[in-house]
Amino acid sequence: VAVASAVPGPPAPVVAPPAPPSTVQGGDLASQMVAGKPPRYPVESRRKREQGTVVLSLTLGLDGAVEAIGVSHSSGFRRLDDAALDAVRRWRWKPMMRDGQPVRVRGVVEIPFVLQA
């Protein structure tokens, strides 16, 4: 009686899925900005003479658009914070690259609201 024994071949190569794009800390975001209008100074804030600087933390997507945004330091006035958020959500940056591939970027943007005399 002949018995055939199967000799296992070499294991199949393991193909790792591509790594998700990494997120890097942004350098000078201002130099990479390609489109963005300054926020409108809320009428009620002008009337009440509200001033301050809003610091926003944001994540830019692979295409340079804002993916996530939040207030990391308030101006002290909700209207000014909201005006800054509304404006910066629409801003666009040149996509950030690492090793020839686009990457997500985390950074901060300061928006000063100062009334002129």
From TrEMBL:
<keyword id="KW-0813">Transport</keyword>
<dbReference type="GO" id="GO:0005886">
    <property type="term" value="C:plasma membrane"/>
</dbReference>
<dbReference type="InterPro" id="IPR037682">
    <property type="entry name" value="TonB_C"/>
</dbReference>
<keyword id="KW-0812">Transmembrane</keyword>
<dbReference type="Pfam" id="PF03544">
    <property type="entry name" value="TonB_C"/>
</dbReference>
<keyword id="KW-1003">Cell membrane</keyword>
<dbReference type="InterPro" id="IPR006260">
    <property type="entry name" value="TonB/TolA_C"/>
</dbReference>
<keyword id="KW-0653">Protein transport</keyword>
<dbReference type="GO" id="GO:0055085">
    <property type="term" value="P:transmembrane transport"/>
</dbReference>
<dbReference type="GO" id="GO:0015031">
    <property type="term" value="P:protein transport"/>
</dbReference>
<dbReference type="InterPro" id="IPR051045">
    <property type="entry name" value="TonB-dependent_transducer"/>
</dbReference>
<protein>
    <recommendedName>
        <fullName>TonB C-terminal domain-containing protein</fullName>
    </recommendedName>
</protein>
<keyword id="KW-0472">Membrane</keyword>
<feature type="region of interest" description="Disordered">
    <location>
        <begin position="1"/>
        <end position="48"/>
    </location>
</feature>
<feature type="domain" description="TonB C-terminal">
    <location>
        <begin position="26"/>
        <end position="117"/>
    </location>
</feature>
<feature type="compositionally biased region" description="Pro residues">
    <location>
        <begin position="8"/>
        <end position="21"/>
    </location>
</feature>
<keyword id="KW-1133">Transmembrane helix</keyword>
<comment type="similarity">
    <text>Belongs to the TonB family.</text>
</comment>
<keyword id="KW-0997">Cell inner membrane</keyword>
